[in-house]
Design a protein that fits this description.
Layout: H1 13-25, E1 37-41, E2 44-47, E3 52-54, H2 58-61, H3 70-79, H4 95-105, E4 112-117, H5 120-137, E5 145-148, H6 157-160, H7 167-170, E6 178-181, H8 194-201, E7 206-209, E8 212-213, E9 219-220, H9 223-236, E10 240-243, E11 267-270, E12 277-282, H10 302-317, H11 320-336, E13 347-350, E14 353-356
The chain binds pyridoxal-5'-phosphate.
Pyridoxal-5'-phosphate binds at residues 119-121, 124, 152-154, 210, 214-215, 243, 245-246, 271.
């Protein structure tokens, strides 16, 4: 498809028509750019007027192999022969569910189990439910969870309580009980062990955090901060949930960003590049009793499950973790040279999860 090219004003006439239909019929909530996606190839995305853009965001991490990737197209072509694309996947089984679960297991910490749902927010919801469930099964009351200032964990009501990146997202909605700590980017931050102080004074049900805040501004946690979360969670017998919805699946050069910190969570959430949402957890936290967790279609979007499995296969086969490390190093070095010139203030991130301020 070649390189980025734009002709005329944006949005072009076809894009403008589509945008105006969406605005007329729908709540126009989070659309930020007048980009109407039509197709793409490699890193280049094409709008409905034929303009081409270099997609620096990989569709916010959801498209790690780029567009029109041969293996993904092959998987999609295979699914095109199948009439039952969406099934009630929490009620009935399908092959794609089993295949993704095997591949997913191979990239999870040892001894983990998983549960597929639709989205990142639902992955967080279920992580929270698993943590609460553990306490309830011990006859303990509902206690607050601890989350970080600047965190983003999704916008469904439960997950929203632990999200804290933009005030507008909270908009007066009711909250689950929550205590907040500072997200520390430097080991020398005086609040580096805020979690220890919170847990000394309060009984809590879980700690939830990203290790690289995505929506919050590509803030990379300090090593000591994350290690303190792990240490204090262990000391107080509280499950640690790490949210890898945006940072997971290889863009940091490891399958999971927490691997850079030498810690393992008790429960984790992921989505985006996996195509479906997933909650993964230590086997002993499995709720056991049937029906405690469920979802609508996460285990039943057969196309998404199949593409998710292809993502894992290709990332492994083509050594894309190594690629993220080497290309990310090059990208960051080049971007860092721009700091202080032309309005670039800071460059943050790990490997190919990089933000420019
Ligand atoms: C860290 C994190 N958690 C949760 C979510 C919510 O995911 P979803 O939009 O799929 O519900 C996001 C979305 O950007 C995210 O970045």
């Amino acid at each position: 498809m070649g390189f980025a090219k734009v002709s005329g004003d944006l949005p072009g006439p076809k894009a403008a028509e589509i945008i105006s239909a969406v605005k007329k019929n729908c709540y126009d909530s989070t659309f930020t750019y007048p980009l109407v996606i039509d197709g793409g190839l490699g890193c280049v995305i094409r709008d409905s007027d034929g303009n081409q853009f270099l997609d620096f965001t990989s569709n916010i991490g959801a498209c790690p192999l780029g567009y029109g990737h041969h293996d993904v197209m092959h998987t999609l072509a295979g699914m095109a022969q199948n009439g039952a694309h969406k099934i009630a996947g929490q009620d009935f089984y399908c092959r794609e569910h089993a295949e993704l679960s095997e591949k997913f297991l191979s990239i999870l910490p040892a001894g983990f189990r998983s549960f597929f749902i639709n989205s990142g927010a639902e992955a967080v919801e279920n992580a929270i439910k698993i943590a609460y469930r553990k306490r309830m099964s011990q006859g303990l009351p509902i206690l607050p969870g601890v989350s970080c200032i600047g965190a983003f964990h999704g916008r469904t009501l439960g997950a929203l309580s632990f999200t804290f990146s933009k005030p507008v997202q909270k908009a007066g909605f009711p909250e689950l009980p929550v205590l907040r700590i500072k997200f520390c980017r430097e080991d020398t931050d005086p609040d580096i062990d805020a979690i220890g102080k919170v847990l000394e004074k309060n009984k809590v049900a879980f700690i939830i955090s990203e290790v690289i805040q995505g929506e919050g501004g590509y803030n990379v946690a300090s090593r000591k901060f994350v290690q303190n979360l792990r240490m204090q969670a262990d000391a107080h017998g509280v499950p640690l949930i790490l949210d890898e919805v945006q940072s997971g699946m290889g863009r940091t050069g490891k399958w999971w960003a927490f691997e850079h910190y030498g810690v393992t969570p008790d429960i984790m959430s992921t989505a985006k590049a996996l195509q479906v949402g997933a909650t993964a957890f230590r086997a002993d936290l499995d709720p056991g009793q049937q029906g405690v967790l469920s979802s609508t279609w996460g285990g039943g979007s057969r196309i998404d499950l199949a593409v998710g499995a292809t993502m894992i296969d290709v990332i492994r086969r083509d050594r894309l973790l190594d690629n993220a490390t080497s290309m990310g190093g090059r990208l960051k070095k080049g971007l860092q040279e721009l700091v202080g010139k032309g309005g670039v203030f800071d460059v943050r991130g790990i490997c190919l999860m990089v933000g420019i301020e």
